[in-house]
Design a protein that fits this description.
about 210 residues; TIM Barrel; about 15% strand; 7 strands; alpha/beta
Amino acid sequence: MIISYELGNSLYINLTNRCSNACDFCLRCAKPKQVKPVWVTSADLSGAEEFWLEREPSVSEIIDDLKRRDLKKYHEVVFCGFGEPFMRFDECVEVAKWLKTQGVKIRVNTNGQANLIHGRDVTGEMAGLFDTVSISLNNKNAEEYNNICHSDYGEEAYNALLEFGEKCAARGIKTVFTVVDILPPEDIQKCREIAESRGGTLRIRKYIN
């Protein structure tokens, strides 16, 4: 079971397969049990046959896995795997608390729907733990977002992720909204304006086919 994996100069944590979205462009939705972890480049994981988790690792299992790493060599540790990390928000927080004792920077890649998923504003619990939050914005309005992301929460998810990002930024968390580069330039520009209006910045992700 792959719990952590290296990509570039960062270490990524794989918590869950679950997600509240089913995005058209996501590898998770392309028969995930058959998808190889092609983006995993570290030698010690090169023989892994599957990235899909057969079960969700416990907090202690995650921390034990991280203890075998030289955490000081990474630019940051990132909560990001096949699923939405904040489906397991409480576990993320517990692991993040331990990581902070190791003096590392922490980022989470999220769909921004944590407040909907858990029925409360979780951003206060994130402050002081997560240095950066990267939120998948994916489109310029709620209708077009849901047409490609198919959220469990329908079009409500879009405004929720914007509010989530705004609250993160207000709490001093570096907030980055992201889109995939398949959008037209004019849509990307609109997304940039939206991100900046919420106190964040925009990053353009490369589409992986």
